[in-house]
Amino acid sequence: MFSGLSAAVGVLAATYILLLAALRSSQDAEEPPSISYSIPFITPMLNMAAKGTKFHRLMRSNDCCQLDWCQQGDLTSDHGYLMSFPKYVHAALSTGPGLGVMNRRSIQVIAKSLNALARQGGATVDMFTWIRHELLLASTEAVYGPRNPFRDPAMEEAWKSFKAREYMVKVWEQYFDERSFEQGSELIKARVKINDDFQISRKETARIELGGSQAILSNTLPGTFWVAYHIFSDPVALKDLREALSKGVYTDDNGVRTVDFSHVKSSCPILLSTFKETMRVHSLSTATCIAMEDYKLNNEYLLKKGSTVMMPATVQHTNRDVWGSTVDDFMHKRLVREPGVKGPNPIAFRGFGGGTTLCPGRHFASTEILMFSALLVLRFDLYPVTGKWVAPPMTKSPLVNALPIPDWDFQVEMRPRDDGKPWNVCFSGYDKDMEIVAEDIESVAPILAH
Ligand code: HEM
Fold first, then answer.
1. Atom number in ligand 1 closest to CA 85
2. Superfamily of domain 81-285+318-449
3. For the chain, which residues make up each domain, given as ranges?
4. Contact status, residue 136 vs residue 156, Cβ threshold 8 Å
5. Which atom of ligand 1 is nearest the CA belonging to 217?
6. pLDDT by residue (tens digit) across 254-266?
7. Which of 289, 359, 366 to mutate to test the pocket of ligand 1 (most atoms within 8 A of CB)?
8. pLDDT value at residue 72
9. Which of 33-37, 48-52, 353-357, 382-386 has the lowest mean pLDDT?
């Protein structure tokens, strides 16, 4: 018994010494200090598991800069599938006819559904569940086309639990075998093309689409919920937005209203700011890149060639030096950019990542979220059935999400603000990109390119 215990203590001590030696030998003295390494490599993992979505924020207050256990192999010379991916999908998601078709389709789906809800006089819904369903249908109709597998409620159920993966693979196999993607968006066609070019079979393509559909849905759906939550729980934001958005609504002689989405995109900076402020407050993403050469950050910290640099958005989004004393407050107009007014540095907003891994889906996602929010604000009043707006916590949300899933749902009563007649939607032709991230801002993009 005693010798068994001594052996176990011996093994633990030897493991500890080995881990410490591995840490020390792989780290240059000029590199940023290691974080919470009472047990090297293990403590950060345990902390991350225990503290979940609060992990990075807490680490920042420890004055730490590096997750030493993130060092990886050499990705700087990879010309394979993953590194080629952007070349294929970025064109399909950039401003142009392909993206235009996707945007229009998703908005039509949303408008039709809200028309039906207004006609029936509103409803009481679980807010997160309802928004998730609306955005899931709108996004997947836009991407997968008329043979969208998510039209079958069984597919939505499977996606929600993510447990019925083999069932979903079978559905995707049928979708690709029957060449249904040919009637879908440029995006889904591009994703099939890269797989074909890399000689990936249709069976594997079906499996890969499990991940592809995650990228399309996993952030847009909770993101839309949080935007709606912040708008409707704040009477000032709601009033400001209604005033601004109603300028883009036209009523014809028969009393039929039309929302011009070009107005929402081009002339409603408060809505874009509300969306970005929601992302500032809630983002969980961690941008990751590889140092291509040795680099001295701030002339102080060495980033060694080949090492992985991880930049959690939550740390940047809660930096008091950047956002000022109101950093902990939600301010819907904080990110309105006005000529001659010095606002926060646009580079500080990292909701969609940045640099080479900047989210290519940001224009599609932002357009969809803004248009849904605009229609909801214009057409409905929302009342929580408990009588009070209480923000659900999000401690259980998976860290792989860039935007968190609320820990619990709650009911809201939706009451139409009008006579329930259908509203039309139109685009009067504005096709410029919105200034979502620094890379989209004409005066900032060239600085970032250097
Ligand atoms: C509000 C919704 C969304 C948020 C917050 C979001 C956030 C992000 C973030 C933070 C990254 C960068 C990850 C990194 O730096 O490693 C990313 C990458 C990516 N996103 Fe999104 N995303 C959203 C919607 C979408 C949509 C709708 C699509 C597709 C239609 C999409 C496709 C992608 C792809 C393909 C990448 C990988 C880019 C690359 O590494 O080249 N995203 N997204």
1. 41
2. Cytochrome P450 (1.10.630.10)
3. 2-70, 81-285+318-449
4. yes
5. 27
6. 888 999 988 888 8
7. 359
8. 40
9. 33-37
